[in-house]
């Protein structure tokens, strides 16, 4: 399991990223010259109303899609120009995914589902089965190793998906409405698991439209019309206490390690502006 890093490092750096979709003769800028850095060990909720660009951003972060223009680097490696095969291998090693609908393979048991990301490799990495066992224990499923997904509750299936997402010790954990299919008690248990993973140093980016889920994260990045609307940084979550202050959009963006919670709001009167320092070097 990961240990907390002594210093934060840039993990996902997006610079002037634009994603444009073509709809007939029209072009839709789903993400507009977006510049942001997510650092190691950070836990971000990505929020915003429908159509604000959350899925577009998550697809880019997850290397499922490519920017129309701009640069995206993961742990310093430019991914936007990788060929498809290199990108696919890189994605499998560096990124973990958690989906609203779990996306487990029904014919595989818990342990096999956790091992799924490495199953298609020529040979198993050393110690990977032991790691899968440890992860199953870690998410509370040590007693269910040979259950099939349909023999598990929704919360247990999501725990399998979380263990699966961690099998390759990814740089980044990307969660898309991870608690959307769960009742509030089970959702809370999954969010507690995220809290624990965050405490252990995992970098988590979670897309949600649920305010209470977003507020469990350490920080909130809010999008509007493909631009950054606000950056809310600070110790939130379990304490629930946020000593926020509003800063004008022209303020110097916040830096990692600042003790107090901060909000930086970007006004829509500044068209095209979609940049903020996610905490590290800009
Ligand atoms: N494949 C596509 N083709 C054309 N336009 C698209 C496509 N995907 C997204 N868009 C447009 O890009 C914008 C951002 O969409 P996106 O799905 O990223 O928003 P979202 O914040 O995830 O919304 P929701 O919360 O409803 O899922 C929207 O205006 C949407 O209509």
From TrEMBL:
PROSITE patterns: ABC_TRANSPORTER_1, ABC_TRANSPORTER_2. Its EC number is 3.6.3.-. Keywords: ATP-binding, Hydrolase, Nucleotide-binding, Transport. It is an enzyme of class 3 (hydrolase). Pfam families: ABC_tran. SUPFAM superfamilies: P-loop containing nucleoside triphosphate hydrolases (SSF52540). GO terms for molecular function: ATP binding; ATP hydrolysis activity; transmembrane transporter activity. Residues 12-250 form the ABC transporter domain. One of its GO terms (cellular component) is membrane protein complex. It comes from the Bacteria. Residues 234-258 are annotated as: Disordered. Belongs to the ABC transporter superfamily. Macrolide exporter (TC 3.A.1.122) family. PANTHER family: ABC TRANSPORTER ABCH.1, IMPORT ATP-BINDING PROTEIN. This is ABC transporter ATP-binding protein. It comes from Saltatorellus ferox.
